[in-house]
Amino acid sequence: MNKNNQKIHNLNGINRILIIRLSSLGDVLLSTPLIRILKNNFQGIEIGFVTKSQYADGLRLNPHINRLFLYEPEDEIIPNLIKELKKKSYDLVIDLQNNLRSKKITNSLNIKTVRFYKHSFDKFLLVNFKINRLKNASPIPERYLLTIPGLKPDGAGLELYTENEPFSLLRGKTNLIGMAPGSKHFTKMWPKEYFEYLGKLLVKTGFQVVLFGGKDDIAICTEISERIENSINLCNNDDLLQTAADIKKCIAFVCNDSGLMHAACAVKVPVLALFGSTVKGFGFIPYKNSNLILENNSLTCRPCSHIGRKKCPRGHFRCMLDLSPEKAFQVLMTLIES
Q1: Topology, domain 16-145
Q2: Distance CA 58, CA 160 (A)
Q3: How many C-beta atoms lie closer than 10 Å to residue 165's C-beta?
Q4: What's the pLDDT score for residue 1?
Q5: Alpha carbon of 82 to those of 17, 55, 141, 151, 264: distances in Å?
């Protein structure tokens, strides 16, 4: 059997494991339970992790990782990465990415490899024919565990370590509600006008709104912040550790199905998540953290994509437009009071 695609029956004789998850932020954070469970169940095991440099802060301070390797797509950098990986003499690779880029790495290493099963055909059936074979599928962190037989969830959630990083910019402030209006894909974004309206409702109720996002979200966060009285705009240039330190100061977090949704879960802040074109069956849901998901379950066109689209294929965008700010406010109050 090819070393690059083997079944593992146990970890006897395995001392060094390399995990590959190149992107994106949410997927990287969703891998942290696997890292923790491996470390806690197999004494003395050494874990390396390969990810893109832009997502490295999600793992940089993780005490369960012995070595973090940074991946860049430039051709001249890949051989250097392979050379560094070979020096460590890993016994097993867990390929959570399972695509052409990760296979390029594993093929070069020629090490025993197991791969995450992505349910690609099931996602295709659900998106294109609304045949749902994912109704009872586990969340992604638990699907990651299936790469190693016998691993079981430990009841804990995601991890994002911010110790020894800059102090929160919100220290001393109270009654803070975080909002992250951004997303890579239009159909996963609740309208900015809705975030603005919700923010104004929150201000009337005595809360202060804090806007969060990365460099791609600066424009939308600035626009919304300018229209909400006394709001604080902490959108930054993709400084995840600073963002996480600040999110910790919030009593709740309102967001789209995005990487910052998982970051808020990882720092244990209650999350109200707004799901548009995507659905819970894909597995990318708030994990082991107080949360409520607001979505329109009356539409037969959902999901129209498993990652998001540039525009609504039906033209009505009801998956998001039907989720009113008033309804979101009610659900958020329920979350805060629970």
Answers
A1: Rossmann fold (3.40.50)
A2: 6
A3: 16
A4: 46
A5: 15, 19, 27, 28, 33
